[in-house]
Amino acid sequence: FLGDGEMDEPESTTALTLASREGLDNLTFVINCNLQRLDGPVRANFKIVQELEAQFRGAGWNVIKSLWGTAWDELFQLDTTGALVRRLREVPDAQVQTYQTRDAAYIREDFFNKDPQLAEMAKLLSDDKILECFHFSRGGHESRKVYAAYRAALAHKGAPTVILAQTVKGHTLGSGFASKNANHQMKKLSVDEFKDMRDLLGLPIADSAFVDGVVPYGHPGADSPEVRYLQERRAALGGPAPARRVHPLAP
Questions:
Q1: Are 63 and 156 in contact (CB under 8 A)?
Q2: pLDDT tens digit string along 124-161?
Q3: What is the pLDDT of residues 10-45, one digit of tens each?
Q4: Handedness of CA 20, 21, 24, 29 (dihedral sign)
Q5: What is the pTM of this model?
Q6: 176: nearest Cα among 160, 190, 156, 164
Q7: Half-sphere exposure (CA, 13 Å, Cβ side) for 199?
């Protein structure tokens, strides 16, 4: 498991051809492509996924890309001419990050209206649909997309595989965190940002629980599936550990 920014480190790519030359088809790299590194975009004026794809294909690896989530499926079905795919390939990563923080009107104008065919497609899409696609829907965040990539990697024989999974850094943390260049240095959520995250994740915490700016602990409920699972696993392991003895055992 690697990050897209880490792939610039020499030790990340030094022996790629060795793996393909030896036919190590039981080796799989998973690269988390959130398009960010500590000091900004990984490739501000280019596309890191395309660069990594070319690098690994050139080294003889099988390349699997899990880039866009389920919300995009409808758009790709509408794309009968390939205009959407071409547009996604040409937009640099820094602009993709910009879409992450802008409203639907901006995305319509800057992304769709650059191409007459995409402009017509955009007329069929609601603002909510556009925001769902550009703000949230990434292949690396969806279990079905990740599972499909893993299955394809296991099925491939004769060469190692790399999975390029596109994600959003700060996913579901709200607009104050998601894809922000400064999010590596952000240490805490404000109350408003926490409420934003609560709404995105559907956490059962009422506004009245926020007292004097203090963020409350969330609990799924004593009979929730999560709590039942924890209790069942603890019981299967023989109970809490270590055991607390109130009365010491005398020799």
A1: no
A2: 999 999 999 999 999 999 999 999 999 999 999 999 99
A3: 999 999 999 999 999 999 999 999 999 888 889 999
A4: negative
A5: 0.82
A6: 190
A7: 8
Domain boundaries, the chain: 2-166, 181-236
To which H or E segment does residue 3 belong?
Answer: strand 2-3
CATH architecture of the domain formed by 2-166:
3-Layer(aba) Sandwich (3.40)
CB-based burial of residue 123 (10 Å sphere; 0-12 exposed, 13-18 middle, 19+ buried)? exposed
CA separation for the pair 95, 87 (Å, rounded): 12
CB 101 within 8 A of CB 54: no
The band of 171, judged by pLDDT with boundaries at 50, 70 and 90, is confident
b/e code 33-69 from CB counts within 10 Å (16+ = b): bbbbbeeebbbeeebbbeebbeebeebbbbbbbbbbb
Q: How far apart are CA 49 and CA 31, in angstroms?
A: 10
Structure tokens belonging to residue 131: 């925001």
